[in-house]
Write a structure and sequence with these properties.
2 copies of one chain form a homodimer.
Chain A (H helix, E strand, L loop, with lengths): L3 E7 L12 E7 L8 E9 L3 H6 L19 E8 L9 E4 L6 E4 L5 E2 L16 H14 L6 E5 L6 H10 L3 E6 L2 H9 L5 E4 L5 H8 L4 E6 L4 H7 L2 E9 L17 H5 L3 E4 L9 H13 L7 E5 L4 H9 L6 E5 L2
Parallel strand pairs in A: 8-9, 8-11, 9-10, 11-12, 12-13, 14-15
Antiparallel strand pairs in A: 1-2, 3-4, 3-6, 3-15, 4-5, 5-7
Chain lengths: 332, 332
């Protein structure tokens, strides 16, 4: 057992873009366990766009990340010491233990996972929160029917990649939006999307129109702004829009919806959601996703950054789309 | 039986604001009835914001109004001649016979109404299409619970006035938005809304915030643009937005939704609808509305313009909010 470990705290709130000095790396003493507690060594930390929202003091759906406290973050690791009846040393556990190498917890929010069935990191991606976000938004909001066309932004990312593959399995035509030719090739060749538009190509609207000549019945939105406007412009009557993320606005970009008229003209339904508010569905969804990943029907890709000290830089890159697939930090 | 009658046709499509020369008054010969046809003398023509959309050639949910054809419009009148087994002379009928004093029809879209129970004009307002739009958007999209706060724009209008009264009957707190002190007084004193914001007062956002200190759970939107943004800014988690009309955009105003981020942050559901696509509910809805109007629990107000020649001017005034309550044209 190490007598100290490293963690990253929020040092200051960003003004506009996130910068490295918004974070501070600290070395702290490993605490002594009390009855009912366990110690987890995190193997992987998940970096996700929602963290950007927490860094601000602005009104949002969740409390702000407190200054000088460990940054919030999903983790997967193993129990290395336990004074808790429900957990034994060696258990693999997923939780929200934060940007930290070690964590003491009472186990309340931990979930045991099967380290033999899937690589541990999968439980932070396609079989974790991002996968569940895809599952919920697609199945509970878009509710696709075979033959419908679904548009997915951030298509090569942790959420978008699962959305598209699940929709394909349900018989939909799936058009992704991603940044750059490499991501678009991956989305089509590896993930099996029917088409993928490179938004960096400079003619998003025209390219998306050409790829959706029969209209769009469902939009799974991870970005917002111009991406959502371009997809709205292609909607058919009674289209559904699952609003999962609006990462596009964090850099201060114009996030106004200029095609709002189409919400009425095409009688669309738009629903914003936070997947952690629907925990009653996680058992069902994660069981389905685990089977699909284990059988190779849902593929995923990861960008793994080594070491907790590199987490801030990796997070800043994530907000700019530098990652390719699920962004993780390997902590051991 | 007169041997001729007057009607108004679409002479040209508006460029920006509607002008009188977009319309043309014509006198035409009364046709001879064929078997299966009937002749209706319209008593009232309904003027409604949706007509503005039909006047454009732009893509919308309905086909454009054809040039040189009778303008579309809801009507109530009486059968004055019939060679149709289902209709007798003297029957009171509601239909969509257009901006015309007389009309020959096969009766397919006509509905007989009870001229003794309610004034005929009510079947074009609170007990007609506007009332059904209120009923559907409130009960099927917003689904209010007692104690919730509902915001209604165009609150003194044919739709908004019914929305607010129905929501009050369901135990909601209702805040209207209307143009000018007279309309706001009417909305509070006569219709019984809890509050009404005069958007012409110059501080819509601050006034609405003061009137909705507990947040907003439902928005019934008839206008869009700044009104919708102001209401979105006040939403609580899981708020619902029924999008019935976006009349604000027809003058070329900026209709972008600047508070789109709140759709995600507050996990809102926004649904656009066209009430004529839900005809299966009209029997139920109109029966309820007829009882509420007959018993005085739902009140309404009308602006009645005399004579078909005055219809274009009345319609232009409607688009600018000059009417007070349901805008009608009396044709006899």
């Amino acid at each position: 057992m190490p007598d100290s470990y490293r963690r990253i705290v929020l040092a200051s709130r960003p003004r506009g873009a996130v910068t490295p000095d918004n974070f501070r790396l600290e070395t702290v003493a490993t605490p002594v366990l009390q009855d009912g507690e366990l110690l987890v060594r995190n193997h992987y930390l998940s970096l996700d766009p929602y963290m950007r929202g927490r860094m601000s003091a602005a009104r949002s759906y969740a409390a702000s990340q407190a200054l000088d406290q460990t940054m919030i973050g999903g983790t997967v690791g193993e129990v290395v010491a336990s004074r808790h009846a429900g957990f034994a040393v060696g258990d693999a556990v997923v939780g929200v233990l934060g940007w930290t190498e070690l964590a003491v917890t009472d186990g309340a929010q931990l979930r045991k996972v099967d380290a033999d069935k899937l690589p541990l990191s999968a439980y932070l991606g396609a079989v974790g929160m991002p996968g569940m976000a895809a599952w919920y938004g697609l199945n509970r909001i878009i509710k696709p029917r075979a033959g419908e066309t679904i548009v997915v932004s951030a298509a090569s990312g942790a959420v978008g990649s699962v959305v598209g593959q699940l929709a394909r399995l349900q018989g939909c035509r799936v058009v992704g939006i991603a940044g750059g030719p490499a991501k678009c090739r991956y989305v089509i060749d590896e993930l099996g999307f029917d088409a993928c538009i490179d938004y960096k190509g400079g003619k998003l609207e025209a390219d998306l129109a050409a790829a959706t000549s029969d209209g769009v019945n469902g939009i799974f939105e991870n970005v917002g702004g111009v991406m959502l406007d371009a997809a709205l412009a292609r909607t058919s009557a009674f289209g559904r829009v699952a609003l999962c993320g609006l990462i596009g606005g964090f850099g201060g970009a114009d996030m106004a919806l200029h095609n709002a008229r189409l919400l009425l003209i095409n009688r669309l339904t738009v629903q914003g959601f936070i997947v952690t508010e629907h925990m009653e569905l996680w058992d069902q969804g994660l069981t389905e996703l685990a089977e699909l990943v284990a059988s190779g029907q849902v593929k995923y890709r990861e960008t793994v950054t080594q070491g907790i000290a590199a987490a801030p830089e990796a997070f800043i890159g994530l907000l700019q789309g530098f990652n390719f697939g699920k962004q993780l930090v390997k902590l051991i």
